[in-house]
């Protein structure tokens, strides 16, 4: 088999780690402090880590058992129904649409976080000086410049990817290596600066926006969808399975990448809570930088910000690659609009890349009227809920294979995969229920998902899957 231009184990692992350890690690300590006590935060990380681990095992298993179904977990939706039927095509299309929308929102969460950390060097990005007024709307200098920075990063990354996935993947490896080294240094420094008093009381009720007291279980419930955002991207190797040098590398990259990310998340999240007080953490727009500055001063903050910018740049490359690959791979399976099959001489899905980034540009408009933290919180909720449906579908598809016995020769492996599939299914349903408790977020997410119906008629029903 010709492996030229294919992705090896190292690049696949870097895509998994790079896409997971992106905006989440930089902004989530603040988001979590708002909804949970330190005990609730740590328990939410552990529970989510376990839930994502079983989900990752599902992805890895399906990548090996169904190697021709490439492009991401949403692809399995069409396999739940009779092949070639309208139900199969519609479910595949709608699942792909929702997953793609989640990717678009995810891109913007990373890009807006990049702008937030860039403000360490250019404070004008947070300026509240009024630029102009239109009725009740006021455009501030900081918001306008943030919008400009996000736009340049989006289309600059677009140009890099057009020059080849392998080169973009190598840049992602360099950025991922820089972030892992930087985070390890942060953990070592933070260990010496940890103040137990900052995480006390360790477990206490929180008061929500409605003024109601929330117990520990309620806090874990509220934090579940937020912590899950940090693991979105664990399926990155599965999305690029068709471009992998070896199919066996897909499962290895998924599990190794997840374990690296989990260690980083729990370590940094716990240590940040031990450096900043809960009130300081909630008020922070750049929690990691504020924490390191509290220990070593502003120069250390700038060094960490620089590492953060490199990390987020790499994540932007990885996520835009992922986003463009999703509708392209679905179109190859015959369940998405055929125009997305267009590619250049280097095999880059050009039409998909252009449309993905144009829609991403629309999401970037959220930075015009919101602070970085507000835009981040809003976007990650929408994105995470969009991902959960394909995750749930993947688990159900594994159960279907186990029950039918398709691809299995051993009863022992069927039992193991059945248990994993059941746990992954329960986990996905639980987080969906927890995440949709906010009717506003739920309604907006459903509206985005249903908007795909408007484009379904563009799908050439006569196209044949590969």
UniProtKB/TrEMBL annotation:
Keyword Cytoplasm: no
Record field: transmembrane: 7-28, 40-64, 97-117, 137-161, 173-194, 220-241, 253-276, 303-326, 347-366, 378-397, 418-436, 442-459
Lineage, opening ranks: Bacteria, Bacillati, Bacillota, Bacilli, Bacillales
GO molecular function annotations of the record: transmembrane transporter activity
A family per Pfam: AA_permease_2
One GO cellular component term noted in the UniProt record for this chain: plasma membrane
InterPro entries on file: AA/rel_permease1 (IPR002293), APC_superfamily (IPR050367)
Native species: Niallia circulans (Bacillus circulans)
Topology versus the membrane: Multi-pass membrane protein
Record key words, sorted: Cell membrane, Membrane, Transmembrane, Transmembrane helix
Classification via Gene3D superfamilies: Amino acid/polyamine transporter I (1.20.1740.10)
Protein known as: Arginine:ornithine antiporter
Compartmental location: Cell membrane
Main location: membrane
Keyword Glycoprotein carried by entry: no
């Amino acid at each position: 088999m010709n492996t030229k231009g294919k992705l090896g184990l190292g690049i696949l692992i870097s895509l998994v780690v790079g896409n997971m350890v992106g905006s989440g690690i930089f902004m989530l300590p603040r988001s979590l402090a708002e909804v949970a006590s330190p005990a609730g935060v740590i328990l939410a990380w552990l529970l989510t880590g376990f839930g994502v681990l079983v989900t990752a095992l599902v992805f890895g298993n399906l990548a090996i058992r169904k190697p021709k179904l490439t492009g991401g977990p949403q692809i399995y939706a069409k396999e739940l129904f009779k092949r070639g039927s309208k139900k199969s095509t519609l479910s595949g299309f709608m699942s792909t649409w929702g997953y793609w929308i989640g990717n678009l929102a995810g891109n913007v969460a990373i890009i807006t976080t990049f702008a937030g950390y860039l403000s360490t060097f250019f404070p004008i990005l947070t300026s509240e000086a009024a630029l102009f007024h239109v009725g009740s709307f006021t455009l501030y200098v900081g918001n306008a410049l943030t919008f400009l920075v996000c736009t340049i990063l989006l289309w600059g990354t677009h140009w890099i990817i057009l020059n080849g996935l392998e080169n973009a993947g190598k840049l992602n490896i360099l950025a991922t290596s820089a972030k892992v080294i930087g985070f390890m240094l942060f953990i070592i420094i933070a260990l010496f600066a940890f103040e137990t008093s900052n995480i006390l009381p360790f477990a206490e009720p929180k008061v929500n926006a409605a003024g109601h007291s929330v117990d520990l279980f309620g806090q874990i419930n509220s934090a579940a969808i937020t912590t899950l955002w940090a693991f979105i991207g664990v399926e990155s190797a599965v999305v690029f399975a068709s471009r992998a040098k070896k199919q066996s590398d897909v499962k290895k990259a998924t599990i190794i990448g997840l374990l690296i990310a989990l260690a980083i998340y729990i370590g940094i999240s716990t240590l940040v809570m031990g450096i900043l007080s809960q009130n300081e953490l909630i008020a922070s727009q750049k929690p990691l930088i504020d924490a390191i500055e509290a220990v070593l001063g502003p120069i250390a903050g700038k060094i960490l910000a620089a590492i953060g910018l490199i990390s987020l740049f790499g994540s932007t490359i990885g996520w835009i690659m992922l986003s463009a690959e999703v509708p392209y791979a679905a179109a190859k399976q015959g369940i998405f609009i055929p125009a997305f099959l267009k590619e250049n001489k280097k095999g880059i899905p050009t039409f998909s890349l252009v449309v993905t980034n144009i829609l991403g540009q629309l999401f970037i408009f959220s930075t015009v009227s919101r602070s970085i933290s507000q835009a981040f919180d809003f976007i990650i909720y929408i994105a995470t809920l969009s991902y959960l449906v394909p995750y749930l579908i993947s688990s159900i598809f594994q159960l279907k294979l186990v029950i039918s016995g398709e691809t299995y020769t051993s009863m022992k492996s069927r039992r193991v995969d059945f248990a994993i599939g059941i746990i992954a299914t329960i986990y996905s349903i639980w987080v969906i229920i927890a995440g949709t408790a906010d009717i506003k977020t739920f309604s907006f997410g459903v509206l985005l998902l249903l908007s795909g119906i408007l484009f379904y008629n563009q799908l050439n029903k006569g196209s044949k899957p590969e």
